[in-house]
Amino acid sequence: MSQKHSNGIVIVAAGRGERAGSSHEGPKQYRRIGGKAVIAHSLEAFLSWPGTGPVVLVIHPDDEALLDVATASIAGRRDCIVVHGGATRQQSVLKGLEALAGRGVTHAWIQDAVRPFVDAALFDRIEASLADGASGVLPVMPVSDTLKRGSPDGVVVETVPRAGLFAAQTPQVFALDAILDAHRRAAASGIGDFTDDASIAEWAGIPVRLVEGTPDNIKLTVKRDIAMADEKLARAALPDVRTGNGYDVHQLEPGDGVTLCGIFIPHDQKLKGHSDADVALHALTDALLATCGAGDIGDHFPPSDMQWKGAPSRIFLEHAVRIVREHGGTIMNADISLIAEAPKVGPHRQAMREKLAEILGISLDRCSVKATTNEKIGFIGRREGIAAIATATVVYGRGGA
Ligand SMILES: Nc1ccn([C@@H]2O[C@H](COP(=O)(O)OP(=O)(O)OP(=O)(O)O)[C@@H](O)[C@H]2O)c(=O)n1
Ligand SMILES: C[C@](O)(CO)[C@H](O)COP(=O)(O)O
């Protein structure tokens, strides 16, 4: 059954974070991870989601200034309602729900400020469950460790079957009237040891539907959780730089010239191959494809396919450039080493670099061509073939490859 609803958000942030230990930044919800306070991550996740209505921030009376600093740059922060919490999470949630009442909200989304990795995909799953008529929704992750019950003196008492057991996350979402009533009744009855709102709903007889949580949506509880969250965000902010390499070799035979890096060089030999046998562009094509795991030149242009007979190798390279761009890549640099006894590459090097710059669509200083002989050793030294080694550097955008 589908029903119209409007969402009010309660973000509880009035705890003291004793298990995480103290810091000069204040309790854990004000600690900076990835350059931003934990509570700012959680708040931004909601404010950037279109389904969000009024937001209540439940804070400790001592933390007004910390909240202002932590959320100063967040658009929409000034529209949030700020109330003071209580001595327990349960009491803080009740204060937040009371602040939502009378604001035209049908459903309350109750969120721990200290779950900074909550995401819009989870909101959408919850929303779908509400639209389907759920009166309460709880995001959960199945428990994956074997569970033991221990005695106070540290001895295993029993193994608890884990089938059907889940770890509860937030946001936990309920019809506002029902959960507010349940919280009020629990408080009036002096029951103050509920650690989450789904257990209050359970106590009050409100059916709660499970939806799949998000593995990353962890609660920052101890010091190590905060350090790991910070490292995770620091890693995510690093540019995604990838390097690919490629190698190719073609045999020489009597002829009138070779094409290397797209430049024809008159010579008394030619390179034998299905296409124009430009080893340099072939190696670079492989290097580019390697940066996004897109196979090699043979996968894209099988030698058995007659349409590539005598083809100019720039079309292979252009294809690789397209694939890199489709994966969100920006080519930063291409470097080719040619290994040939002859012809001399030096006089053509500038033209080769210009050709690479044109095909790759990057500046000349990002294109390098080098050459070396093989000191008359081996098949290259005997002028039986020419080889090329290429390296490409590509930066991929987040959400790209
Ligand atoms: N009196 C309280 C206690 C907790 N919370 C909030 O409830 C969430 C989850 O609680 P928890 O991780 O237990 O936080 P703390 O109570 O701060 O941690 P600790 O138990 O280690 O002191 C946190 O966002 C916390 O700020 C709250 O609003 N009011
Ligand atoms: C609400 C909660 O995050 C769900 O897992 C959890 O119960 C909070 O527990 P805590 O005792 O306040 O850490």
TrEMBL record:
InterPro entries: IspD, IspD/F, IspD/TarI, MECDP_synthase, MECDP_synthase_CS, MECDP_synthase_sf, Nucleotide-diphossugar_trans
Keywords in alphabetical order: Isoprene biosynthesis, Lyase, Metal-binding, Multifunctional enzyme, Nucleotidyltransferase, Transferase
Binding-site list for a divalent metal cation: D248, H250, H282
Domain 2-C-methyl-D-erythritol 2,4-cyclodiphosphate synthase residues, every copy: 242-394
Gene3D superfamilies per UniProt: 2-C-methyl-D-erythritol 2,4-cyclodiphosphate synthase (3.30.1330.50), Spore Coat Polysaccharide Biosynthesis Protein SpsA, Chain A (3.90.550.10)
Catalytic reactions on record: 4-CDP-2-C-methyl-D-erythritol 2-phosphate = 2-C-methyl-D-erythritol 2,4-cyclic diphosphate + CMP; 2-C-methyl-D-erythritol 4-phosphate + CTP + H(+) = 4-CDP-2-C-methyl-D-erythritol + diphosphate
Segments of this protein annotated with the region 2-C-methyl-D-erythritol 2,4-cyclodiphosphate synthase: 242-401
Marked site (Transition state stabilizer) residue numbers: R19, K28, H274, T373
Molecular function GO terms recorded: 2-C-methyl-D-erythritol 2,4-cyclodiphosphate synthase activity; 2-C-methyl-D-erythritol 4-phosphate cytidylyltransferase activity; metal ion binding
Cofactor: a divalent metal cation
Entry EC number(s): 2.7.7.60, 4.6.1.12
Metabolic or biological pathway, per its Swiss-Prot or TrEMBL entry: Isoprenoid biosynthesis; isopentenyl diphosphate biosynthesis via DXP pathway; isopentenyl diphosphate from 1-deoxy-D-xylulose 5-phosphate: step 2/6; Isoprenoid biosynthesis; isopentenyl diphosphate biosynthesis via DXP pathway; isopentenyl diphosphate from 1-deoxy-D-xylulose 5-phosphate: step 4/6
Binding locations of 4-CDP-2-C-methyl-D-erythritol 2-phosphate: D248, V249, H250, H274, S275, D296, I297, G298, T372, T373, N374, E375, F379, R382
Example GO biological process: isopentenyl diphosphate biosynthetic process, methylerythritol 4-phosphate pathway
Marked site: Positions MEP for the nucleophilic attack: R162, K219
Domain of life according to the entry: Bacteria
Region feature 2-C-methyl-D-erythritol 4-phosphate cytidylyltransferase, mapped onto this chain: 1-241
Function: Bifunctional enzyme that catalyzes the formation of 4-diphosphocytidyl-2-C-methyl-D-erythritol from CTP and 2-C-methyl-D-erythritol 4-phosphate (MEP) (IspD), and catalyzes the conversion of 4-diphosphocytidyl-2-C-methyl-D-erythritol 2-phosphate (CDP-ME2P) to 2-C-methyl-D-erythritol 2,4-cyclodiphosphate (ME-CPP) with a corresponding release of cytidine 5-monophosphate (CMP) (IspF).
Family to which this protein belongs: Belongs to the IspF family. In the C-terminal section; belongs to the IspF family.
PANTHER family: 2-C-METHYL-D-ERYTHRITOL 2,4-CYCLODIPHOSPHATE SYNTHASE, CHLOROPLASTIC
NCBIfam families: ispD (TIGR00453), ispF (TIGR00151), PRK09382.1 (NF006899)
UniProt-recorded name of the protein: Bifunctional enzyme IspD/IspF
Organism of derivation: Gellertiella hungarica
